[in-house]
Amino acid sequence: MSTVKAINLVLPEIEVYLAGSSLDGQLVLHLRSTLVDPLVKVELVGRGFLRWFEEDNPDLDYYKITACTNDAVYVFKTENFHIEDGCLDSGVHTFDFHFNIPPSIPSTFTSKIGCISYFVQGTCCSHHVVLAKEERCLLLQGTAGNHRSYVEDKAPVVVKARKDVMYFCCFSYGSVILQISLEKRIFCPGETIIFKTDISNRTCRNVRKVCFAVHCIVLYSGFSSRGELRSLENISEVTKLEVLRNIAPSETMRVTSALVLPKPMPLTSTLKENKIMAFKYELVGTSDLPWTTSTVIARVPIIIAA
């Protein structure tokens, strides 16, 4: 039976921690009997890791898959507790700890290809043997980045997209035009994006639905098994909205919509800042042209900054 009955980490009730803030907590250790030569510590760890598979050499006659990987350490801090007389009596012992979270680390992020994660880990050892351990994950919102260079970029943004089509059944031409207007293009995690869309239906059929989404475009940077630098770009939806309308032929309709950004979320950044991943965002509006397989797509680049 282990000498340690229980080990618990007590953390503040904070849903999302901010980079540059502090973390105060307690490690509570419950011992069944006296513990000699103990090592009690708490660690704050933040790591990034990515992995994807791709064809090793398309020019070869046979098919060979290689794994591309990379990793980064964003924070690794340890607080060792001083034990008087080199032993701990049976009972409950409480250890206070304090960490300053670095200001220039990225946000928590998870995808099928990579992740950036943070956790606090409490450990109790004796004679180099781990007796008990507890780990608590942290959600962290990054605050660093090039946000200062975006401050002056406050001009409204208007993007227009048009898709033409020919209806062979009646030998007529048509088009659908999407025009998305934003008062600004810089947003904070957790903020609501409010935008207006003018939908012009120049076809002979009704337009019934327009979809909006915020896309996160991630550039991953890794190394193959031979040490060659590789990159992969992947797009995922952060949040989305469907607007159902019945827009008649030759009609133009204005729609005001809102999309709420999650928190935490990675800031717009480069590989230089995040080491293994770079992030950028766009607001995308799409609408299928009636009675066709064509789609009109309007893309508005936006910036996520804190």
TrEMBL record:
According to the lineage, what is the superkingdom? Eukaryota
One GO-annotated biological process of the protein: protein transport
Enumerate the InterPro entries for this protein: Arrestin-like_C, Arrestin-like_N, Arrestin_C-like, Arrestin_domain-protein, Ig_E-set
Pfam name, any one: Arrestin_C
What SMART domains is this protein classified in? Answer: Arrestin_C
Q: Per its UniProt record, what SUPFAM superfamilies does this chain match?
A: E set domains (SSF81296)
Could you tell me which residue ranges the Arrestin C-terminal-like domain spans? 172-306
The entry's cellular-component GO terms read:
endosome; plasma membrane
Q: Which family does it belong to?
A: Belongs to the arrestin family.
Query: What PANTHER family does the record point to?
Result: ARRESTIN DOMAIN CONTAINING PROTEIN, ARRESTIN DOMAIN-CONTAINING PROTEIN 5
Q: Know the name of this protein? A: Arrestin domain-containing protein 5
Q: Which organism is it from?
A: Dryobates pubescens
Mind giving the lineage of the organism this protein is from? Eukaryota, Metazoa, Chordata, Craniata, Vertebrata
